[in-house]
Amino acid sequence: MAKKLSRRLQELQKKVEDRVYQPIDALNLLKETATAKFPESAEAHIRLGIDPKYTDQQLRTTVALPKGTGQTIRVAVIARGEKVQEASANGADIAGSEELIDEIQKGMMDFDLLLATPDMMPQVAKLGRMLGPRGLMPNPKGGTVTFDLAGAIAEFKAGKLEFRADRTGIVHVMFGKAAFPTDDLLVNLKALQETIDRNRPTGAKGRYWRTMYVSATMGPSIQLDINALRDFKFGDAA
């Protein structure tokens, strides 16, 4: 049974034409349709020409959003010895060793991002069943397994995000808040596009970019001209 759309969303959908929008127009419309009673995020949903069941067609990486995420990120760190103190001194919200692993096993999930030092990964592996489904398992490709805790904490708190293509080859990623100025959203979206291009899987064949839609958290989907975004240079007429 199809889910009935709210009257608010039905009205907003009338504002979105059945066409592909230029980047600036799409982002302006995203802002116009962010009418929920809470600060909505700006989201991108990108279908790529990949089949992630093959290891050479998987996409998992990070993007540093130049204008930030608009969110406060709670960072937990699993390390040992002096690295625990280093993490706390550099802004980690939670830091610990085996005792933190035990707390997480008991259900403590009061964090948005988990970092781990490489030497702790054998113990962290036992948390895979809990953290994996939530997208919180530390991974070297995502920059969340590192000895450079100070650098990693600073980057993620400043707007670095980890993202991956789901099993159908679609990337879902938040690239700011709908309340951001349009130009700031465009800067972040361009950084995301360049990151996806730079990390094209070696096994990707044919047309890599299929479709891109943007939306506010509770708003309608707006199709964006991906070629126009890829060709966009700052300094172009908006």
From TrEMBL:
Q: Which UniProt keywords apply?
A: Repressor, Ribonucleoprotein, Ribosomal protein, RNA-binding, rRNA-binding, Translation regulation, tRNA-binding
Residues that span the membrane, as ranges: none
Q: Which PROSITE patterns match?
A: RIBOSOMAL_L1
**Record InterPro entries:** Ribosom_uL1_bac-type, Ribosomal_uL1, Ribosomal_uL1-like, Ribosomal_uL1/biogenesis, Ribosomal_uL1_3-a/b-sand, Ribosomal_uL1_CS
- Known CDD domains for this protein? Ribosomal_L1
Query: Self-association or partners: how does it assemble?
Result: Part of the 50S ribosomal subunit.
What this protein is reported to do is described as: Binds directly to 23S rRNA. The L1 stalk is quite mobile in the ribosome, and is involved in E site tRNA release. Protein L1 is also a translational repressor protein, it controls the translation of the L11 operon by binding to its mRNA.
Q: Which family does it belong to?
A: Belongs to the universal ribosomal protein uL1 family.
NCBIfam families recorded? rplA_bact
Q: What is this protein called?
A: Large ribosomal subunit protein uL1
State the encoding gene: rplA
